[in-house]
């Protein structure tokens, strides 16, 4: 279903401007609008062009379900060289993903005194599960 155009009042509220200011923008040609009877209507695309970025929309228009996992994996008794190799492999796997994929963050923190590595993973549930599988494979491989 096509989106309904905005009224001058709606645009004024979205932009935090006075209604007269928005009308002046329309009359000056800075904001494209269509006159219907005695009222102006502004298309979403024209408002976005005027603002230079997408217009804010209601929650129902933009709400999409997003499921994300935040996890910390701790590996004890790991040598610094093993930690570096594992960390580099995980970072490379996260960085090699397609730009169209949902974001996936993998960070590592190593405590040299305790020889303990913490891997912080933030991303979609399926992507996080793949990182878990990769960690399991890399840690269980014989050296």
Structure summary:
With 143 residues, this protein is an alpha+beta fold. It has six helices and six strands. The strands form two sheets. A three-stranded antiparallel sheet has the order 1-3-2.
Q: Mind explaining what this structure looks like?
A:
- The protein has 143 residues and is of the alpha+beta class.
- It has 2 domains: 6-62, Multidrug-efflux Transporter Regulator, Chain: A, Domain 2, CATH 1.10.1660; 69-140, 2-Layer Sandwich (Alpha-Beta Plaits), CATH 3.30.70.60.
- The chain is built from 6 helices and 6 strands, in the order βααββααβαββα.
- It has helices at 8-15, 19-28, 44-51, 59-62, 80-95, 125-140; strands spanning 6-7, 34-36, 39-42, 69-75, 105-111, 116-123.
- The protein has a 3-stranded antiparallel sheet.
- α1 packs across α2 (19-28) and α5 packs antiparallel against α6.
Give me the secondary-structure topology.
Blueprint: E1 6-7, H1 8-15, H2 19-28, E2 34-36, E3 39-42, H3 44-51, H4 59-62, E4 69-75, H5 80-95, E5 105-111, E6 116-123, H6 125-140
Antiparallel strand pairs: 1-3, 2-3, 4-6, 5-6
